[in-house]
Write a structure and sequence with these properties.
Number of strands: 8
Strand order of the largest sheet: 6-5-7-8
Order of helices and strands: HHHHEEHEEHHHHHHHHEHHHHEHEEHHH
Number of domains: 2
Structural class: alpha+beta
Distance between the termini: 47 Å
Radius of gyration: 22 Å
Strand content: 5-15%
Helix content: 40-55%
Length: about 450
């Protein structure tokens, strides 16, 4: 039996054996319902509904449900749609480090496989087991993100979704160590997405379904490994042809930190603002400034942010679509200064016709505050600071600084009422059993929650 690369073995050892404590599982419960809320909210938008009516899905039959719909399809396509719905509005949880991402993207495969295995193999899971799987997926994706910058290589962070989803899919299918090693090796060998669709001049809606696609690839690879008995032990380290040699160059992928529950324990929630997370505190700061002056009084605007905030979401020139706008810090700040709020409709083509937005963008300077960057990368603090400074034509200066966004560990208690409202508001117009789902959200004793009752209620 071939010996697998240490990185693969470490992920497998963790996924096979980890059991989260009750406090972490309770955090995972909050994350579970927040992710479901994001999917419900996404269904209000016509463009995401087009994905639910893709001909090859609409014409298929199966036993696996899709969140908020009456679709029954196969497990791979259900994973894709679940992931697309959870991710569509850029409103689900976030993880920021050298790499970025949204670990709740992996819930898509957990939900689909839980449904599939109950019907096909009479294998069931407790709610605690589902939450523990979430913790495992979060930790794999998030810990790899702490130490490795795939974005600097031009690779999209959904490579980590694929790896994490492949691992939890393998665990749910009761694979042994050797089988799980093989599944993860396949995920590493698989072609990895470029970040092209997240950046000018090619920014597009693919960023809203890329994670669903990656998660679906993960579960598909788990099934393929079951029947093909193939494995690639040095998928990471092989000379010339391995992941490091081909993609990472002088920065080989590493996983030196221990795998526990750090990511779920420190996850970031998007509470009020569906916007790229590096801009969350900028939005909050701008909203605080909204009522202090009028548009006509503004001379210029300065945004001080972290280095990733400059590199990822500071944009000049035309913003051609929704995906461009919700990843532009200048657009977000301008909108919040003008309107005193931000929601999913703030980025539509109709909203962007307000000529004042581009006028404010033209007089905005965005720059790195090195102290903010240091606090951002400090793993004990994990701050995401932004400062918005507005200079008026009469010389008056107004500024607001926000260090930790609502949804950060440091503001968790403050966030809880808003997260509850986010979930309950997401149930409006779904046609689902809002009474049951609202009660399920409130239950503190995890042993009293039946996951299959929830699955029945989140599908039409």
């Amino acid at each position: 039996m071939s010996k697998f690369d240490p990185l693969i073995q470490k992920i497998t050892d963790f996924a096979q054996s980890f059991e989260a404590n009750d406090n972490t599982l309770k955090e995972a419960k909050t994350c579970f319902f927040d992710s479901i809320a994001c999917a419900f909210l996404a269904l209000e938008h016509e463009k995401v509904q087009n994905f639910c009516s893709l001909p090859y899905i609409a014409d298929s039959s199966g036993s696996v449900g899709v969140i908020g719909t009456d679709i029954k399809t196969n497990v791979v396509d259900a994973t894709f749609l679940n992931g697309t719905l959870i991710r569509w509005l850029d409103f689900n949880d976030t993880w920021l480090a050298k790499e970025w991402g949204h670990p709740s993207d992996n819930l898509s495969v957990i939900l689909a496989l839980a449904d599939y295995l109950k019907v096909k193999k009479n294998k069931t899971f407790s709610f605690k087991e589902i939450l523990n799987l979430m913790v495992i997926a979060h930790e794999i994706q998030g810990t790899l993100a702490i130490e490795n910058s795939f974005n600097k290589k031009g690779l999209d962070h959904v490579v980590l979704v694929k790896i994490a989803s492949a691992a939890v899919a393998s665990k749910m299918l009761d694979h042994n160590h050797q089988q799980m090693n093989a599944v993860i090796s396949n995920a590493l060998v698989d072609g990895q997405s470029l970040r092209t669709y997240r950046h000018f001049p090619n920014t597009g809606a693919r960023k809203s379904w890329a994670a669903g696609d990656a998660s679906a690839r993960g579960v598909k690879l788990a099934f393929i490994t079951e029947v093909s008995n193939e494995n690639y032990p040095t998928a990471v380290s092989a000379e010339t042809w391995g992941f490091d040699a081909v993609l990472m160059g002088k920065d080989p992928v590493k996983l030196s930190r221990s795998l526990e529950s750090y990511v779920m324990d420190n996850i970031l929630y998007k509470v009020n603002f569906p916007a790229e997370f590096h801009a969350q505190t900028a939005a909050e700061a701008a909203i605080k400034l909204h009522s202090k002056f009028s548009f006509d009084e503004i001379l210029n605007i300065e945004i001080q942010t972290q280095e990733p905030g400059v590199r990822i979401i500071s944009k000049k020139g035309p913003l051609t679509n929704y995906a461009d706008r919700d990843h532009c810090i200048e657009y977000i700040v301008a909108w919040c200064l003008l309107h005193g709020g931000l929601d999913a409709n703030s980025y539509t083509d109709e909203a962007a016709t307000d000529s004042r937005i581009d006028k404010l963008r033209d007089v905005t300077l965005t720059s790195e505050n090195k102290a903010y960057t240091e606090r951002y990368y400090d793993l004990d603090e994990r701050a995401i600071p932004n400062k918005v400074i507005v200079t008026l034509k009469n010389g008056d200066i107004f500024e607001e600084e926000v260090i930790y966004p609502l949804g950060h560990r440091e503001r968790r208690d403050e966030s809880k009422p808003f997260l509850k409202d986010k979930f309950k508001n997401s149930l409006n117009n779904t046609g689902l059993d809002t009474v049951f789902l609202s009660k399920a959200y409130e239950i503190e004793d995890l042993d009293r929650v039946e996951i299959y009752d929830i699955l029945t209620k989140i599908y039409k």
